[in-house]
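Training component of the fellowship. As part of building independent skills, the fellow (R.M.) carried out the full modelling exercise for a liganded target. The chosen ligand was magnesium ion. The inputs are recorded below so that the supervisory panel can assess the work.
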Amino acid sequence: MNASAAVAAAVVPAAGRGERLGPGAPKALRELGGVPLLVHAVRALARSRAVGLVVVAAPADGVAEVVALLDSHGLDGKDIRVVAGGATRQESVRLGLAAIPAEVEIVLVHDAARPLVPVEVVDAVAAAVRAGAGAVVPAVPLADTVKRVEPNPGRPEPVLDTPDRATLRAVQTPQGFDRTTLVGVHAKALAEEAAGAADAPPVTDDAGLVERYGGQVVVVPGHEEAFKVTRPLDLVLAEAVLARRRAADAY
Ligand code: CTP
Ligand code: MG
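Fellow's submitted model of the complex:
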């Protein structure tokens, strides 16, 4: 692998509406400490020496706005590109992947909705791919016991079983991939969708696509601050984490 191939490109899906966060701007543009979530997320990636290019998949009607936003927050020095995202996270990632130059061999995919991921997690995921893993996800053990149920919204739901919590992990991003592997599974998924195939359960992350087509995924330690901003309470927690960081930096 030559030097430029060893530098990763990061795709940042940022085209979601943020329905669960409630009414307002698209989630990636909502502010945390006065700065949009997307800007935090891109900065976190750009801080890593392992990352040489960031491709943001913006809301399709917000590309110009996102370009202006990134400029106004001084995100220069790194190569940052903005493309229009799609109707699903999977489509947004696929559109982002298409904008990565051919020589790049390592790709990270990082949710705009995880603004506080520590740079150590970014570095560790990229390093694991560089060391030979085809697909790497950062993850943390679960605090809660988890039960599988027969879904029956609005009614008491029968429990099917309780997986052993010691074998479960909550996965985060950035997820890291050998570029060929990731592009390949996205292409397969698109072809299957076009053929109208499969009522398989929806795949909610990129590693899940690798698993679907039989690839090996490995887990490395994630970080509690890499949590995803999904509901209003997550934003409260994110503000508190950011305030704690800023206070620590002031000393
Ligand atoms: N995402 C995307 N394109 C979509 C949907 C989601 O790029 N069509 C991105 C989001 O912007 C987010 C990441 O995927 O950074 C994770 O998705 P999620 O947390 O579900 O965000 P939203 O889809 O925006 O939120 P919600 O599901 O509550 O509407
Ligand atoms: Mg969503």
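The panel noted the following from the submitted structure. The longest strand covers residues 51-58. Residues 16 surround magnesium ion (ligand 2) (CB under 6 Å).
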